[in-house]
Please model this.
Amino acid sequence: MIKPTELRYIKKTNTLSITFEDGFSGDITSEYLRCFSPSAEVKGHGPGQEILQIDKENVVIDKLEPVGNYAVRIVFDDGHDTGLYSWEHLYNLCKNYKENWHSYLERLKEAGHIRKKP
Model:
């Protein structure tokens, strides 16, 4: 398991900056983190049960809470706080950002939702 060596919320850009022990780093937006929460509220309870998150363009991180030595709980200003972001999940979110984001935007389009500019 690759652990982060730095986890920093940058309020000005509304991004989470993460550096991992293998040297890989990424800056990911609060919206992306919220839409790809590992919670059952977002992922559902099994494959194909994912719930498309809409209107999260302006969501802000209120708090980062360490959970043991394996994850962080991210508390968002829309009240969402049930996802535990394991180090592995955060690493995968960073590594697969472009593909995940493109897929998310396509799903929004298919659902007829137009993103509001943050």
